[in-house]
Amino acid sequence: MTTSSRTAANLYALAAIGLWASLATLGASLAHVPPFLLTGLGLLAGSLIALPLARFDPRRLAVPWRTLGIGVYGLFGYHFLLFTALRLAPPVEANLVNYLWPLGIVLMAPLILPGVRLGPAHVLAALAGFAGAAIAILGRAPSGMPVADAAGGHAALGYACAAGAAFIWSSYSLLTKRLAMTGRGFPTAAIGGFGLVSGVLALACHALLEPAVSLSARDVLLIAVLALGPLGGAFFLWDRALKLGDARQIGVLSYLTPLLSTLLLLWASGRPLSGNVALATALILGAAVLGTRAR
Hints:
Blueprint: H1 3-21, H2 23-29, H3 35-46, H4 50-53, H5 65-88, H6 91-98, H7 101-112, H8 120-138, H9 155-181, H10 191-209, H11 217-228, H12 233-244, H13 247-253, H14 256-269, H15 275-293
Helix pairs in contact: 1-12, 1-14, 3-10, 3-11, 5-6, 5-9, 5-10, 6-8, 6-9, 7-8, 7-9, 7-13, 8-13, 8-14, 8-15, 13-15, 14-15
């Protein structure tokens, strides 16, 4: 792997991370839309990005059934368990458990990717990144109110679902990288097929589990933005990053997601930067520098 390909991969990953960071702010504007409906529409619309990548030939999106299964496992499985976790457990704490996925990418890389080993710098960077993510996420909780008070008696199941979501996204990311390393890779345009099937499944969950709602023109516009960004374009960028780069480095960089998300929420709400966010920034940026320099 050349230095130029590593750099390009990190840039693709940072672009995906930047798009994912906007999800919380956009989601706050669409909080009245049921989450499975929001995800289903976002994934379906986001899958259209694949058409120009495939030169408007749907046959270029075809992949083996096993590969399609891995894609749906990642996109649908992750969102299904995450939304279930947020329903059952305190959202702040469940989201923190969910952000074990970058750590999972780093620590599971030697188990899934041939020829990949972990060095002390990778482990230290991943742990520092998780500490920074924890500080950034827990700092969002309203002052004077325990974050655990938001859930009922199903919190343990919610935490298990959040951990499952983290495992699914980290393993999906590494499995797609493994396919590329072993000569069974798929074109990035195939992410559109993953999103299409996952979107249909999410809408089925909406029909079964959520109330029907009417969408305004503003809702439709914001959902289109979601489709271009965190629920569409980000997946294509993420796939490209993993195919070109070092999964261990990309895993560490991923801890920028909760930090940037928090900073964007603070900016959107007009709240000042707090000391915990400043500390989180230092930890995560330090982890990113250490992780990207480790070999």
